[in-house]
């Protein structure tokens, strides 16, 4: 057991999907995994292990934001030996040519979070996904004829950022979408010599105001879930 995860040793697979929403974790486990067993209910942050096409795979909710995902991913790698981590999250698009429900592979994650400034002082570290996972996910998407966008996402501490964030500047510098966890995931995976990637579905468009419902975010982003599962078992 670790501080925030109640699983016994060996109960978590080396390969894991990480949605922010614990009910998305439950949905993925019950929809895609064979014989899913719930290994964690501490704080309602559900975690399951089962098999996907015969390969042991876990799926663990991480909660929202950098501090929350940092706790879960560090404990998963440090206490349970997790080695391959794919975030399956939602994001808000800030580019005109990206639509609601599009899938984004996060290659890198810029951030306004202070967490890496605490770690690295004046150095601007560049949180980067695993090339192996990114390449594999891109191939999986192409084989399925799924269009994916690949690029730099923005991990923000502020979900409600009206009047604070300069979205136009971020868009002009190539940011595809905003979310709240990838920079921490990529940084910690590097520290623990693990591989990480973020696969995101656009749940809302920040420029147009188009949005999906909580129910849709929980249960309908199948393209992202299936690309992630096919990628994680190939590692
Ligand atoms: O849908 P998830 O994976 O939680 O991701 C996004 O949704 C939450 C905000 O609504 C943040 O966690 C953000 O990163
Ligand atoms: O972090 C997020 C997630 C979805 N939509 C947003 O605008 N921000």
TrEMBL record:
Q: Where is phosphate bound in this sequence? A: 20, 24, 43, 87-90
**Keyword set includes Transferase:** yes
Q: Which residues cross the membrane?
A: none
What Pfam family is a match for this entry?
Answer: PNP_UDP_1
Keyword hit for Glycosyltransferase: yes
Alphabetized GO MF terms: purine-nucleoside phosphorylase activity
Q: What class of enzyme is it?
A: transferase
Keywords associated with the record: Glycosyltransferase, Transferase
Please state every residue range assigned to the domain named Nucleoside phosphorylase.
Answer: 15-228
**InterPro entries on file:** DeoD-type, Nucleoside_phosphorylase_CS, Nucleoside_phosphorylase_d, Nucleoside_phosphorylase_sf
Q: Which reaction does it catalyse?
A: uridine + phosphate = alpha-D-ribose 1-phosphate + uracil; a purine D-ribonucleoside + phosphate = a purine nucleobase + alpha-D-ribose 1-phosphate; a purine 2'-deoxy-D-ribonucleoside + phosphate = a purine nucleobase + 2-deoxy-alpha-D-ribose 1-phosphate
PANTHER family linked: FI09636P-RELATED (PTHR43691:SF11), URIDINE PHOSPHORYLASE (PTHR43691)
Q: How does it assemble?
A: Homohexamer; trimer of homodimers.
Query: What is this protein's function?
Result: Catalyzes the reversible phosphorolytic breakdown of the N-glycosidic bond in the beta-(deoxy)ribonucleoside molecules, with the formation of the corresponding free purine bases and pentose-1-phosphate.
The protein depicted here goes by the name Purine nucleoside phosphorylase DeoD-type
Report the source organism: Alicyclobacillus dauci
Q: What is the lineage of its organism?
A: Bacteria, Bacillati, Bacillota, Bacilli, Bacillales
């Amino acid at each position: 057991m670790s501080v925030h995860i109640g699983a016994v040793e060996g109960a978590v697979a080396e390969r894991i999907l990480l949605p922010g929403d614990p009910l998305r974790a439950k949905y993925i486990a019950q929809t895609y995994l064979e014989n899913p067993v719930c290994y964690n209910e501490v704080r309602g942050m559900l975690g399951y292990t089962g098999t996907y096409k015969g390969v042991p795979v876990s799926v663990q909710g991480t909660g929202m934001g950098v501090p929350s995902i940092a706790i879960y991913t560090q404990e998963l790698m440090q206490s349970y030996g997790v080695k391959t981590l794919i975030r399956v999250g939602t994001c808000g698009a800030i580019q005109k040519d990206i639509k609601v429900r599009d899938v984004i592979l996060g290659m890198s994650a810029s951030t306004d979070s202070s967490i890496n400034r605490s770690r690295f002082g004046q150095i601007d570290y560049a949180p980067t996904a695993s090339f192996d996972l990114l390449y594999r996910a891109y191939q999986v998407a192409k084989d399925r004829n799924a269009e994916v966008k690949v690029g730099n996402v923005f991990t923000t501490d502020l979900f409600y950022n009206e009047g604070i964030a300069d979205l136009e500047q971020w868009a002009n510098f190539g940011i595809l979408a905003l979310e709240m966890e990838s920079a921490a995931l990529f940084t910690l995976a590097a520290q623990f010599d693990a591989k990480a990637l973020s696969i995101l579905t656009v749940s809302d468009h920040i420029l147009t105001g188009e949005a999906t419902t909580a129910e849709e975010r929980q249960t309908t982003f199948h393209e992202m879930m299936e690309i992630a599962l096919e990628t994680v078992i190939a590692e």
